[in-house]
């Protein structure tokens, strides 16, 4: 089953809330843990136990595990495996982007089921040119995995690249061009394509983008960072039904209390279901 189909089914069953599992050093201390591998393991696996049975997608940010070296990556492997065992899809936040054989190696590391880091989907950066992602695209198709391509991020530096106008027909912005590529990749997919976009939940407006590209939209910045359900409706319009709203601190700050974290996931899913009509 393609990633798009798995995601569509998971969201229908559990709701469109994506929980980031991001072990910031400050959060480890807030939970009463040391900023070391033991603290990382208790934090990350405690979060998995609390939220993975109740949300459709979890999104570990790889960097917060990599900073501990091989032992941290071993914890990430357990987060991936135990989240999937609990019924959640795993979107690994790596934002990789390279060319040729290096891009293929990244794709094999994160999308090939033979890898201990294999996930249902990953985030990728297209800003070396969308064609540089072809190894990721091919590997995702081969293994029924998904991609979420950076398109219109909400960081203040983003527009200097993403809103630049290309030389192609119609003077498309870089963001618009990325969405055009995704529209082609998702053509004829039912009920949802496997190639998604990352579009911030805190944008001032939709940047004039055509967000109807038949794929999922990862919207980071929901909740603690200021994005609201009303913002999702305002930014995404009719495409809001394909939005996967993402938050990490809004849930993680409630730890290490698993009941409070679980309640936050269930409550947020209820709020977000309004977008699906």
TrEMBL record:
UniProt KW keywords: Decarboxylase, Lyase, Pyrimidine biosynthesis
Record-level Gene Ontology MF annotations: orotidine-5'-phosphate decarboxylase activity
EC nos: 4.1.1.23
Pathway the protein takes part in: Pyrimidine metabolism; UMP biosynthesis via de novo pathway; UMP from orotate: step 2/2
SMART domains cross-referenced by the UniProt entry: OMPdecase (SM00934)
Reactions catalysed, as given in the entry: orotidine 5'-phosphate + H(+) = UMP + CO2
Orotidine 5'-phosphate decarboxylase domain segment(s): 16-264
Highest rank taxon of the organism: Bacteria
Family matches, as HAMAP family: OMPdecase_type2 (MF_01215)
Family to which this protein belongs: Belongs to the OMP decarboxylase family. Type 2 subfamily.
Name listed for the protein in its UniProt record: Orotidine 5'-phosphate decarboxylase
Organism: Nocardioides albidus
Lineage: Bacteria, Bacillati, Actinomycetota, Actinomycetes, Propionibacteriales
């Amino acid at each position: 089953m393609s990633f798009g189909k798995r995601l569509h089914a998971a969201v229908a069953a559990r709701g469109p809330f994506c929980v980031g599992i991001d072990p910031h050093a400050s959060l480890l201390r807030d939970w009463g843990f040391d900023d070391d591998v033991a603290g990382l393991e208790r934090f990350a696996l405690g979060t998995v136990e609390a939220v993975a049975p109740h949300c459709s997608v979890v999104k570990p940010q790889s960097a917060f595990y990599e900073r501990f070296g091989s032992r941290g990556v071993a914890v990430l492997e357990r987060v991936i495996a135990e989240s999937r065992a609990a019924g959640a899809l795993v979107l690994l936040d790596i934002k990789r982007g390279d060319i040729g054989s290096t891009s293929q190696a990244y794709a094999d590391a994160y999308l090939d089921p033979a890898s201990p880091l294999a996930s249902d989907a990953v985030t990728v950066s297209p800003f070396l040119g969308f064609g540089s992602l072809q190894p990721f695209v091919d590997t995702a198709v081969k293994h029924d995995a998904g991609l979420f391509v950076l398109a219109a991020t909400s960081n203040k530096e983003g527009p200097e690249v993403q809103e630049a106008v290309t030389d192609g027909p119609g003077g498309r912005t870089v963001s618009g061009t990325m969405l055009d590529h995704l529209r082609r990749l998702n053509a004829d997919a039912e009920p949802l394509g496997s190639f998604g976009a990352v579009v911030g939940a805190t944008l001032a407006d939709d940047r004039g983008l055509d967000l109807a590209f038949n794929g999922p939209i990862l919207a980071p910045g929901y909740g603690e960072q200021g994005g609201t359900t009303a913002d999702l409706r305002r930014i995404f319009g009719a495409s809001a039904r394909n939005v996967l709203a993402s938050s990490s601190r809004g849930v993680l700050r409630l730890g290490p209390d698993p009941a409070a974290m679980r309640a936050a996931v269930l409550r947020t899913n209820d709020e977000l279901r309004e977008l699906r009509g």
